[in-house]
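Batch 3, record 17
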Amino acid sequence: MRRFDGFDYMDIDAQLSEDERLVRDSVRSFVEEMVLPEIHLHYDRGTFPKDLIEPLSKLGVFGATINEYGCAGVNNVSYGLMMQELERGDSGVRSFASVQSALVMYPIYAFGSTEQKDKWIPAMAKAEAIGCFGLTEPDYGSNPEGMITTAVEDGNEYVINGAKMWITNGSMADVAVVWAKLDGKIRGFIIEKDRPGFEAKEMSFKLSLRASDTSELIFSDCRIPKDNILPESGGLKSPLMCLSQARYGIAWGAVGAGMACLHEAIEYSKERIQFDRPIGAFQLTQHKLADMATELTAAQLMALRLGRLKDEGKVDFAQISMAKRNNVRKALEIARTARTVLGANGVTGEYHAMRHMCNLESVDTYEGTYEIHTLIIGHKLTGLEAYT
Amino acid sequence: MKIGVMVKNVPDTESKIKLSADRKSIEMQGVKFVMNTYDEFAVEEALQLKEKLGADTTVTVFSLGPERLVETLRTALAMGADAAVHLTDPAFEGGDSIANAKVLAKAAEAEGFDLILGGKQGIDFDSAQTLSAVAEFLGMGQAQVVTDIEVGGDNTSLKVRRRIEGGDEIVDVTLPAIISCEKGLNEPRYASLPGIMKAKKKEIKKLGLSELGLSADEVGAAGSGTQVVGYSPLKERPPVKMLEGGPAEQAKELVRLLREEAKVL
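Prediction for the assembled complex:
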């Protein structure tokens, strides 16, 4: 099988700068050599490849768009390309990087005090501290505004009570950025894992994102110093700003998963012989490949345009919603179709398609479900809200 | 210590190579170029030596050829090299290994390197001549196909291991010298994202014929003692034939084919 070399039907490479291509190529080599040889084994065992954390930090992946604290300061297109390549390996690895960068380093950077930034940003860039993000609750997913986790002031401390669910990196994390209501208003808090009353439990029996730590966080009278509040956070807007960062990366990540599946399907179709011909010579297979390639190309172009808008400071969250919604759903369809091209072989972990397919089922739902993004686009188009 | 690294770029091993219509050259259109594998070991070794020897050690990468080399030089800068020199001039085109070595030697001479590293060969044309020729032009000692480098206490010599049939040869090399690098020497690092951003700001110096003080007749095609007159692809192998039936039948059929079709029995 030919080695993966991206998928670029419309010469999109020509739209990238030299350093954007270098970032992409460097992360691509890393994924090829460090992630792919073992990822299916982690997926099978349901473990996160922890040995990748340090090499990923050396590569400069964490907080890559931050232009200080020893972070790389790449533009948003480079960040997107990096997410594309990581997810070409596995959504679990991309999710780890998304959470560390967009959901923990970003809010501390955007809403944190100087002391909080100085303490956490360099440590998280070097992966000396792993972070997680607690917004979703067992009963509040698409409706985070209704959250019941609370923070109550008590002398020099806040007392946190509540539970957060579906938390990527939850059990591995040294620190959590947790959203809770203080006097009825949503605020962000930095909670270290060794605070008494903070417990993380890894969720078992997942059939998706198996190479990722997904946990439940429980806070029972968990006391944190007053300095641990993110001073600039206020209202649901703050966590939603984090989600915009993460969703942006997901729109690119989905392209990577789609690329992996399409590449595999094309190569397999050229080698697999049935009725004395490679199955790629049959019209039914070509129809599948042509559809996959077209949707993937559209997704790539949307991600790139979104990135350019973000770099110009002109992107709006409803545009990010469109790209996240479209690219993930299309990648999911590509993965499913790729699985059919691979036939029975497609159900084994020796091939990538079904692993990506199962992962993308989660990605389609997390960070704003497909349905919620539909309503965000509908709201933008009509000016009318249809959420409730 | 001043370290120079000579790098080139070569078609990615996944590239499909097509010959030009006259079969005298290779179609470069649509071919993806990457840093020569063995040159990556050379860059990595230079960076490790810099890390070991301290801040007054500098690493300068050199490359001779067309514009596309800039990306390869930028990769080396992103890995951590301090400076890059791109040797480019229309007069350099079509040079053989010796003519190219003349240009590289001239450029290196001006820098006064203590150590020059490079890959043991380019994986495109496999001549494995250029570095040796540079060493000859500069009158430097050289050790080829090296898998380990140890710097002597006073930084004036190296102890290197050379991979030879059945074992290693251990050689003391007096600096300045040229070393060609073999697989196993190290694990080349990935260009990090901060490294790539820093490399953006580093200048790639361009030097041509006049800057190097060379004349057009001693370089490029004009200065070459050899000339490629054509390429001929290997004959395609006939398709594999699968034999049907049980082991006994297959063995019988195999013997028949070897006798009657291949005529080797």
